[in-house]
Amino acid sequence: MRLVKFFFPALLSFIVYTGFAQNFGPSVYSRLGVGNIADGSFSRAQGMGGAGVGLHHSYQLNSLNPAALSSLKFTNFEFGIAGKSNVQRTADDSQRGTSGSIQYLSLSMPLHKRFVTQFGARPFSNINYNDNFTETVGEKTFQVTKSGSGGLSEFFWGNAYNYKDWLMVGVNTGYILGQSVYDHTQSEGGQARFTTLSQKDEKHLRISPGILITHELKRAPRIESILQKDSLIKDTIVRKIKSELASGNWFLGVGVTGDFYNTLAANEEKYQSEARYDQSYGGYIPYKYDTLSIRAIPNYSLPNTMKVGVSLYKPNKITLALDYTYSNWKSFTYNTLNSSYHNQHIVALGAEIIPDYNSTKFYKRISYRAGLNYNMLPYIVAGQDIKQIQANIGAGFVLPKSGVTLNTAITYGQRGTTSANLIKENYWMFSVGIIANTKWFVRRKHE
Fold this sequence. Notes:
This protein is mainly β. It is built from five helices and 17 strands.
């Protein structure tokens, strides 16, 4: 199946639904910082708990480490979509919501047998919440609505070089931009409505260098030594060779990468409006509109991040991966909801097993994946640390004679707490990634 059949429809979908891609909530904690930040993982890593900084693959892109890009053998196109069901609970009440999103779009091309370039786009963060409650001020009772929408999107370009398959280096550059809108409305039934609107626009440049080192732990016996040991019986020789070669070798992978940000612009505008209720009209009519402030946000910058990953794997058989991520959110200065920040820590653990990659039977070539992810989120709200825990399972299906791989993942997660009158979120997410490989820029050989 040609790559073009996937590329153009998916590209068109991404352009059309870019705004909808930001609507991946609802989540009350998306009002903090820059919203709920996407972990940046593609479909294979999603089934492994988001682990993979120390991994690479010849036919599936690893977005967690720019250096891993260099291992791709063919032109690779991948896009991912996801659906989410979310329940938000307090000690006394609950609220449900569902949503869907395009997660990413990527096109990678080997320009040389050891050099690969990549172009892509993905949502970076998402803001989506809506709170409704009553508030009494003196003798008046107001219906209060606090809502937020928007978020950030990223367009990125990556390049990587593979030095003799044991050392890979790469760098990914991203342009991040978007708008966040926060609305605070107080309505006095049948009389007046007061609204404060805050709008934040920001642009950032991201530079992410990466390095990946692999080392062979166990070298398979040479064919010559096998022949010497079993030179008496031909059948034994053949079986022995096949057995040794099929078992493969164990490899150790160590990857290091980081995200370093430079804020190009960050501005905030605040407006206030008042509407009066008109009984003959049957609704509120705008009465007054004021600009409170238009300003550049001082000392505003996204926090830098460092990631380290270790993997142990037997190619196309079994893979184990462990990642650690650190982000210096403590220096982030944009506070909302009476919140403060501490440094973020994430630990991800993942595994993948393939029964028999070389089998002609479809079910034996399925990749089975599982993972866990623990995220100490950087927000402190009402004196409470906010944690997120996820469990993932996934599967990868190589479609025969098509050059297409279909990856699926199911995620169950919890975020927050009901202590101190806060909100706890429980969610299910189902994601699908479609990967198409084809031969572009490959020089044909004639004999």
